[in-house]
Amino acid sequence: MRNEKGSTLIQVLLVILIFSVLGLSLMINVVGENKRVNITDSNVQTRNLARDGLIYFETSFKDYIDNNKPITLNELKGLFSDAKYPEQGWMTIRDEKNEKIQIKVSHPDIIKSNPDGIEYSDETAKRNYITVYSKGDDGTTVTELTGHYKLDFEFDVNTPTVLFAQFEEGTKAVDFAGGELLGLEIIAGLVGVDALDFIFWHGDDGYYPVPDDGILDIDLLGDALEVNLLGLTFDLLLNLINSISGGTLDLEIPRFHTMENNPVVAVRDAKAVGLDLLKIGEFNLLSLDILKLPVEKNVNVLINGHYGNVKVPLVSSALDKILGFLLPNLIPLEGGHQDIDFEKLSVVGNVIIQQDKNDCKDQFLKSCEQNMRRFTFENGLFVTQTLLVGGERVKYNIPELDKAFGKNENHLELGGDMVAMRDFMIDSAKVKFIDDGKNTGSNIYVHHNAVIRKSCIQSDSSMFRLFVKDKLTIENNVECASYNGLFYAENGIEVVIPEGQTMIINGEVIGDIKISGGGTLIIHSNSYNSVEFKDIKLISQGRVFEGSE
After folding, report:
1. Which UniProt key words apply to this protein (predicted)?
2. Which of 167, 171, 208, 549 has the lowest CB atom count within 10 Å?
3. What is the pLDDT of residue 283?
4. Exposed, middle or buried, 159 (CB in 10 Å: 0-12/13-18/19+)?
5. What gap in Å lies between CA 414 and CA 432, rounded to an integer?
């Protein structure tokens, strides 16, 4: 009996021991799970706090932009001031109970000033990118979240376009193509045509020079001989006087009074664009909206300042070339060239702005530097299709003359705002945008693509501002010390720089920048406080928690 009682006691003790161990194990598991739950809850809370930090920045950014629209780059700098969002150290935006949020903002390059410029060599130049760091702290756990953003600038090209498209009463509509009867046409992409020749060319491929007053005053062929020989006589006298004076007297007769004192709409077929039939020298007083004109029959215009003298076939083209070869600047049988300060010009078609071929002052085939040719537009230039500045110049096709007149490039001074409803290009040109007293440089508004190639922009960075609705391409030119101006493109900017070369831009580049070719881009920033953007949006490029893969 005693052994049985002892055995039973041992069994009871074993059962108690087993249940005690199980209970203790269960308690340990419950406590551990509670700790794990608390840690998980803490992680979730701090993650949410970190997210709230990014949301705070996004909301603050949007409110600031909305309250300052339209907004300038200088005003954007105000948002990223160190007092508001310091780059060094953390800024606390919430600190209550067990919830603390801190953020730190890496400022975008586009608002930074660096005397040495900012250098980019990667394929993507992240000039408009922002990094925001946010920390959530509940007193137990700290979680850091990094947000990546891109600034998306929106510029309003449409408003200035509509403004420049309006022509008030007093506008002169001029049939530029009427000059083809007088041999004033430049055919099919700038192939040279002697001014003495009669050319009959029809279609959309011809380029027509801006008619001078001598042409506008003639009634077709009726008074051509008398008017143009008179112009020739004046030119001969002025050239002789200028030659005798050694250049101290630079006399010339104004040739483009009509263009310089009237808003002008250039057309080729007035009826085709809904205007009254207009011949050379016959003008309408009208107000119209260029955007509402059809473009089935466009007139392509060459602006190079050429004016004509002898336009009738009494002197052969061969004699003209012989005299031009012997005395290229004394006997102006082909007329000459002058700078033009347009009041306002609209062209229903394409436009080429170019330096003329006849621009060397030295006589007897001496080599010389080409002069600048200046064209300004007091109240704007409106082009319904494509605007080309520069391009391949017309040549004499006489080797000695072509050599004397230098390289095939354009030296231009331009002033006033311009609109191109299609594309815009600067090609083979050294361009200086100027303050002519009426316009401080040029704003150029382009509705499709733009290209700058084999060219230099030599003006101060404040004088040239290019706004492109689609894509802008800039090809590096090793002959340029720098490109000066503001370059904006809604759908991106490709900068082509061959490996080993460096492009310097003094001004600003706004948009998604892609560097192709393996070269280096250096940007010296200019704030352009006068340029207002319709909106600046913050586009998220992703978020990453610290330690996440």
Report:
1. Membrane, Transmembrane, Transmembrane helix
2. 549
3. 41
4. exposed
5. 6
Whole-number Cα distances in Å, 265 to 39, 168, 259: 76, 11, 10
Copy the structure tokens of residue 316. Answer: 């052969």
How many whole angstroms separate alpha carbon 120 and alpha carbon 513? 10
Instruction: Map tokens 């017309």 to a residue.
Output: 394
In whole angstroms, how far apart are CA 37 and each of 26, 34, 44, 97, 145? 16, 5, 10, 20, 22
Contact 436, 415 (CB under 8 A): yes
Instruction: Show the tokens assigned to 11.
Output: 């069994």
Long-range contacts, 392-399 (Cβ 8 Å, 24+): 392/190, 392/427, 392/428, 393/190, 393/354, 393/355, 393/356, 393/357, 393/428, 394/186, 394/190, 394/191, 394/192, 394/356, 394/357, 395/192, 395/357, 396/192, 396/321, 396/324, 396/357, 397/192, 398/321, 398/325
Residues 6+ apart with CB under 8 A from 262: 170, 171, 172, 343
| Predicted structure pTM score | 0.78
Mean pLDDT by groups of 10 residues along the chain of 549 residues = 63 72 68 52 83 94 94 89 78 88 92 88 90 91 94 95 83 67 32 30 65 60 38 52 52 75 78 44 51 68 75 42 46 65 92 74 50 90 94 59 60 95 94 84 96 91 93 94 92 95 94 95 84 95 76
Amino acid identity, position 497 = I
Q: Let me know: does 376 contact 342? Beta carbons within 8 Å.
A: yes
Cα–Cα distance measured from residue 494 to residue 500, given in angstroms and rounded to the nearest whole number: 17
DSSP string, 486-545: EEEETT-EEEE-BTT-EEEEEEEEES-EEEESB-EEEEEE---TT--BSEEEEEEEEEEE
Q: Are 272 and 294 in contact (CB under 8 A)?
A: yes
Say whether 200 sits in a helix, a strand or coil: coil
Which among 282, 395, 415 has a CA at the least distance from the CA of 342?
Answer: 415
Tokens, residue 450? 């733009």
Closest CA to 411 of 478, 469, 353, 462: 353
CA dist., res. 349 & res. 340, Å (int): 20
Four-CA torsion 30, 35, 41, 42, nearest 10 degrees: 170
C-alpha closest to that of 274 among 263, 257, 253, 288: 288
CA distance 341 to 204: 27
Tokens matching residue 172: 């002169």
The beta strand positions in 348-390, using DSSP E, are 351-353, 373-377, 381-383, 387-390
Task: Give the H or E element holding residue 314.
Answer: none
Paired residues of 432 in beta bridges: 413
- Helix or strand or coil: residue 58? helix
